[in-house]
Description:
Helices cover about 25% and strands about 35% of the residues. It is of the alpha+beta class and about 100 residues long. It is elongated, with a radius of gyration of 16 Å.
Amino acid sequence: MNSVYNVIIRPIVSERSFDLMEQGKYTFEVAKNAPKEEIADAVEKLFNVHVVKVNTMNVSGKKKRVRYQTPGTTRSWKKAVVTLAAGETIEIFGNQAAE
């Protein structure tokens, strides 16, 4: 990959990902061909933190009905759960404090 912006596509916003943030784990959608080392380097450069561990998984597309009831699928993508060093955080949503 050429740029860290091509590796990290977007943060995943869900209830489970917010619960993992309390444990120092952050979830991102990443490029399908990005290896774990490249994901760790991209997170370290973008957010100035130290990455301890990266877990990745391929999320397959779901079957959906598309126009005129023809079957189709949603896109498949790759998810990465990044564990940071103790005491470090990423402010994904600006300066909002978790209350």
